[in-house]
Amino acid sequence: MNLIELAKIDCHCHVLDPQRFAYPTQVAYKPQGQEIGTADYFTQVMQAYGVRHALLVGPNSGYGTDNRCLLDAIARGQGRFKGVAVVDNQAGRQELQALQQQGIVGIAFNPSLLGNEAYDAIDPLLERLQSLGLWAQFQVSADQLVHWLPRIRHTGVRTLIDHCGRPELADGPQASGVQALLELATDGCSVIKLSGFAKFSKLGFPFEDTQAHVMALLDAFGPERCVWASDWPFLRAPSRLDYGTLLMLAQRWFTPQQCRQMMWDAPQRLFGW
C-alpha cells in the first residue's frame, strides 16, 4: 500500500501566520523561519500527500490563548479542518460553546511545557468539557500523567493524549508514566496520538528507540483508539523533519489495515468528519 494514495486525516498540526495574526507580546516563544506554516501553505502540503482533513491544534508557542489564527483557518478551510483550542483555565461554558460552534472539538493542556502546576485549578473546566462532549487534550512528559489520571477519571472527560505520552525512554516500560498510559487505555474511551517521536527519541530519525513504546501503545489502545499525526510544521524540532519521511515510517511500522484505521476510520469517527 502506498500511504500517499490513502485518504488520510492528520490529527496534530499547527498553523502560524504572524503576518496576518501577530504573536501576542507576552508569549515566551515566537516561531520564526521554517517553523512558520500558514493555512494556505499547509493546504498545499495536504494536497501533495493525500491528506483530506486535519485537526489543527492551537500552539502555546506563538499564540498562547489567542485562537484567531486557528479559527480563521477553520472558517476558510471549507470543511478540511477542525480544531483544538487553548483557553484560560477559567473559560466558561458560553465561551466553550462559542468555540464549539466554530469547529473546535477540544481544549489543549500542555504540562510538558508549563508544568502540572499551571493547571492546578482546571477540574471545573474539565467538567464543563465533559458536559459539552469536548475533548481534553493533554501533552505530558515522563511521569506527569500519574498526576492527571485520577482527575481524568473523576471528571469523566474524554481524553486525548499527545505524542505517545512523551515518555523518558531510559526509564523503561515499567516507568510510572508509561504504566499510567497503559492504565488509561483500559477505560475504553481515551485516545492517544502516535506522533511526535522526535520529542522523546534520543536517536533521531527513524526513531528506532521509540518503536517498542509505540507498538505497546498500539496494542493497549487498539487502532480504533490510536490516531496518526505529523506534528507539522515541527515546532522546536531538534533536527530536520519532513512530512513524506514520517508517512514512509508509518508504512514500515504499521499494517495497511492499521494505517486505514488510525489515519482515517478512527479520526473520522472520533472528531466528527
Topology:
Blueprint: E1 8-13, H1 39-49, E2 51-57, H2 60-63, H3 68-76, E3 81-85, H4 93-101, E4 104-109, H5 111-114, H6 123-132, E5 135-138, H7 144-155, E6 158-161, H8 176-184, E7 191-194, H9 211-221, E8 226-228, H10 243-253, H11 256-271
Parallel strand pairs: 1-2, 2-3, 3-4, 4-5, 5-6, 6-7, 7-8
Helix pairs in contact: 7-8
Give a nutshell description of this structure.
The protein is α/β, with parallel strands linked by helices. It has helices at 39-49, 60-63, 68-76, 93-101, 111-114, 123-132, 144-155, 176-184, 211-221, 243-253, 256-271; strands spanning 8-13, 51-57, 81-85, 104-109, 135-138, 158-161, 191-194, 226-228.
Portion of residues in beta strands equals 5-15%
In the CATH hierarchy, what is the superfamily? Metal-dependent hydrolases
**Tally of alpha and pi helices:** 11
Q: Averaging pLDDT over every residue, what do you get?
A: 96
Task: State the oligomer.
Answer: single chain
- Helix percent reads 25-40%
How would you describe this protein?
This protein is of the alpha/beta class and 273 residues long. It has a single domain, classed as Metal-dependent hydrolases (TIM Barrel). Helix content is 39%, strand content 14%. The chain contains 11 helices and 8 strands. Strands 1-2-3-4-5-6-7-8 form an 8-stranded parallel sheet. The longest helix is centred in the C-terminal third of the chain and has 16 residues. The two termini are 24 Å apart. The mean pLDDT is 96.
